[in-house]
Structures are given as C-alpha cells and as structure tokens.
Amino acid sequence: xxxxxxxxxxxxxxxxxxxxxxxxxxxxxxxxxxxxxxxxxxxxxxxxxxxxxxxxxxxxxxxxxxxxxxxxxxxxxxxxxxxxxxxxxxxxxxxxxxxxxxxxxxxxxxxxxxxxxxxxxxxxxxxxxxxxxxxxxxxxxxxxxxxxxxxxxxxxxxxxxxxxxxxxxxxxxxxxxxxxxxxxxxxxxxxxxxxxxxxxxxxxxxxxxxxxxxxxxxxxxxxxxxxxxxxxxxxxxxxxxxxxxxxxxxxxxxxxxxxxxxxxxxxxxxxxxxxxxxxxxxxxxxxxxxxxxxxxxxxxxxxxxxxxxxxxxxxxxxxxxxxxxxxxxxxxxxxxxxxxxxxxxxxxxxxxxxxxxxxxxxxxxxxxxxxxxxxxxxxxxxxxxxxxxxxxxxxxxxxxxxxxxxxxxxxxxxxxxxxxxxxxxxxxxxxxxxxxxxxxxxxxxxxxxxxxxxxxxxxxxxxxxxxxxxxxxxxxxxxxxxxxxxxxxxxxxxxxxxxxxxxxxxxxxxxxxxxxxxxxxxxxxxxxxxxxxxxxxxxxxxxxxxxxxxxxxxxxxxxxxxxxxxxxxxxxxxxxxxxxxxxxxxxxxxxxxxxxxxxxxxxxxxxxxxxxxxxxxxxxxxxxxxxxxxxxxxxxxxxxxxxxx
Length: 645
Prior knowledge:
Elements: H1 16-28, E1 32-38, E2 44-51, E3 63-65, H2 71-78, E4 82-84, H3 87-93, H4 95-100, E5 105-113, E6 118-127, H5 136-158, H6 182-191, E7 195-201, E8 205-214, E9 217-224, H7 226-231, H8 244-258, H9 264-279, E10 283-290, E11 293-300, H10 306-309, H11 321-328, E12 332-334, H12 337-343, E13 356-364, E14 367-376, H13 384-421, E15 432-439, E16 449-457, E17 460-468, H14 473-491, H15 496-510, E18 516-524, E19 529-535, E20 541-543, E21 549-551, E22 556-557, E23 570-574, E24 580-584, H16 596-610, H17 615-624, H18 627-631, E25 636-643
Parallel strand pairs: 19-22
Antiparallel strand pairs: 1-2, 1-6, 2-3, 4-5, 5-6, 7-8, 8-9, 10-11, 10-14, 12-13, 13-14, 15-25, 16-17, 17-18, 18-19, 19-23, 20-21, 20-24, 24-25
C-alpha cells in the first residue's frame, strides 16, 4: 500500500484520540471509555485519554502490563474484541475489576491495530441496562472505528509525529460531592441504577441524597437524614478527599491480583505485570533472605542481569539499601541517584542505569521476609500519598510471598516424594518397547496415588498400573507400598491372579481405609500373548498392527481393599508383533461434563491415528490431546507397551 498524500494525513495539532473516542462512543451510545497506547519500549499499555468518568475510577489501570488479565490488555494481546456483558460475567472472568468496581455495567475492549502492528486498545462501557450481548451493529462500529484510529496512528508514526497530550472528556460537569461520596455518584452514572448516600452539612446536620440517573442527566432528591444525625454528630475527618478513592482502588485491585499468585515466580511476575506499571517504574527486584544472606528471588526490566545477580548471596550485615530495608522494616525512597549515593557511596561503583528507587520492606506475620525494589528510569518524586500506597502494597506483596515460599517448599517436597516412589526409568526388556508418563493433579497437594511399573521376570515381563484414592501424602505413601508389594509378589513367582489377591489382602491388613484400582499384566512377547487381571481399573486399549483399536473387556474383581476374599480372574489376549497396549489411569479420560464412553472412544481414535509414532512421541501426543489431562482434576498415569516385530 502506498503512503497517503501529506494533505490527507492527520494533523498533529488535532486532538486525534479524543475525537476518535468521542465519535466511537456516540456511534454505539456508550457512556464512558478510554484509549490506551502501547508504551514505546516496554510491554505496557498507558491510558492516553478517558471520557465519561473521572480517572479516579480507572486509576488502578492507568498503566497495565500487556499480559495483565483485564479486558483491555487481553484485547491488545490477542488482537480481538473482548465483550463482558454484565456484573456477574465480570466477577467470573475478571474478578480484580469486579472487586474495585462492583457495579452493573457492560464493557467492550477492542484492539487498535493494523495488520502488522498493535498500537493500543480502547474500552467503552454501557450501563447495566444494556442487553447481555453486543449487537452486530455495535461490534462492527467498534471494530471499524478502532481500525481507522490505527491507520491514523500509523500515519503519525510515518511522519515521525506523536499525538499531543489531550485532556479527558467528562460526560458532564464535575460533580462537587462531599468527601467520600464520589464513588457513589459515579457508580450511579456507570450503572444508571438509582442509589443513595448521606452527607454531613456542618456543623451537625445529616442530609440524605437519592440519585436517579438517566441517559440525559441525574436527578437528585435531598432530605434530612434524622436517623443518622441521631446516631453520630461527628464531622468529617481531616484529610478525607475524593482522591482517596484512587488509593483504595489501587490497593483492592492489586490485592486481588496477588491472591492469584501460587509460587514465588508467580509473585514476581504479578508484581512486574501489575504493580510496577501502576507505580510507573520500569524495573524491579524481589529479594528474600536465607541463612543470613540476601537472595534474588526474581527481577524484571534490567538489560544486564548481572547487575542484579551480584547481590545474590550478599550477607545481611552489608550496608546496602536492600539489606537495610529488609533488616529494619523501614521503607526507603530515593528521588535521584545523588540521594542514593549520598547514603550509600559504594553505589558509585555499581550503577544499574536507573535514576530513582523505592525500597519496600516485605513484612508478613510481623517478620521481614524480603525487599521489593522498584526502579525508575528518570528522577521520580515520591509524595506522601504515593509512599503510603507503595508501603501498603509492600505488605500485600509480603503476604503473597510468604504463601508462595511455603507453596514452593511443599511443591518441592511433593515432587521429591513422588519421584522417589515411581520408577526413575523403565527397564529395557527383550521383545518389549515401553514408555510412561505421569502428571500430578493441579488441585490439592500436587501429589497423588497413581503408579506404574515394569518388572522383568524369568524371561517374561510384568506390567502394572494402579490408582490409590486421594491426593495427599497418605495416598502417595500407600501407593509406594503397593508398588513394592506387586514387584515382590511378581519376583517370587506368583501368577497374575495370585499377585492381585495378595496385594488386596495386604491393603486390607494395612488398615488405611483407602481403596485402589489396579491392572496387572504378564507379557510373553515370544509367544505373542499377555495374561491380564483387573481390579476395578479402566480397561486397556489394544492397537493391532493394522491400526485398528479395541477396548479390552477384561474379567476382574472389585477394587483392592474392599473384600479380603475377592478373586481376580485372568484374561489372555493375543499380542501380535507391532501391537500397542495403552494402560492408563482415569485421570487421562475423566473430566467434568464429558461422558466416559465418549472420552474412551476419543482416546481410541487418537491411538489409532498416532499409533505408528515412536512410543515416547506417542505418549506425549496422547497426553497433549487429552482434555482431561489439560484440566488435571486428577492425577494422570500412562504406560505404553509395544510388542517388537
């Protein structure tokens, strides 16, 4: 496409963004909106202009990371329109926004992008009376308008120009509300639902305000609130002002974000994606302590990682701003490099390329657990209200970090225990090729009772797969006992039926009050046969050399651990060279809302299509294509056996 003539291009002096947003809102009858532009050198969206509401309502999202789970970032990231039809959907999909703005309203976020580049995104909102679905007309208007805006921005870039800073567009004149009532007034304008509040008229008269919003304005009924006046004569507290809403909104939003963090790296990533952009910083470091030394838990935004990592292992007795904030619990704010180097002269020798810093002590349960360092590319004043917000956020980060450290320790313990109980490798056996996969459930303790094994025995091979109920240490420990028992009974020469009976009696004798499913096979590849016994376990799949797959309907008995006198009859199955047996636990096929027969048929189809792959690739493919394995409500174990041709 050839460039447009200069006369057709957007003039720099024109309020490009404001006019585009106003026109867009008018076309779809939206009541508020904002335009975000991508930051020049970081994956951050910055609010350029807002219309219809004061910025106090969008303060937590004036600068948002491109990976943040909010509609405007999602629209830019995925280059698609994002629609949220109401309060309930907002709470379900974007709880962080719903916590801060618990009002009934609808929202659409649209990318501002050309075929080759994303320039930003736009969101617009409607009151709660908007239908739950976005109409085709509204969708087409929004997409077309954002497309036109992207082309205009592209032209300004080609001309080496940038849009001027533009004032926000309020839908109506500023509401002069009493202290603390801004949120109530603006909530009414967002949702167009009637609302009310009370306010003090000095020296001691309480007034009741009832608001009736409409598309053309806001009607207000004022009356004397006698009941409130009788309850309290106290006046407003000094320092209260509408701007306090910004502080509360930011803390609520970011607190909601931090509750989603699981491990330490999740905390670091959330601070980078949510807190650093909101605070206007360009880099961060999260420091922890262990054995009297400083440890770098994570960092973002530093071009040279060595600048940060040199602090790893530094004794806490060293005089640095990071160690001091951690050991004293006192935050430190440095508006310039001069301020920092005046107190810490050694920083002359270790420049990090930044010009201002906030050192926030992370204190949880009354003890310091680390320090969060926010770095700024330019001089940055820290007024009292910003210091208060950052200090509060430090406390929230500390609580999330404390939980994350405990989770990581538990996670490491669980995986270590699981690894110790499952075979490290499968033995190489003549006539049999084998591959296995194990995935712990993503719910609970990340450890469970699924197990598998492959055991050589007198020129033959025995294979077992099973599932002890539960996702905890007890289940894992019992699983380890059962796997050891099966291996021992196999080694002493018991038949498949005897192995199952002995394991059943052992489980009952252990008195664990847990049950287990199990599938046991004795393989004889030279004779092309397999003898199987089953205890309440999902049936295996057999893929023949011609690619056909069938479900093996095996005889069997009840779950292990129920009936000490139970018998487990065996079934003999032909195993031609090139055949593949797929043994699995129910976590591979069971997922909420999916019929088990349909899931089993789907697994058989996948095995038929991909069964000629090398076994390791086949195992990966079956796990990758399993919907149940992606959700991981339960543990997943898979054991594949191929008779060599």
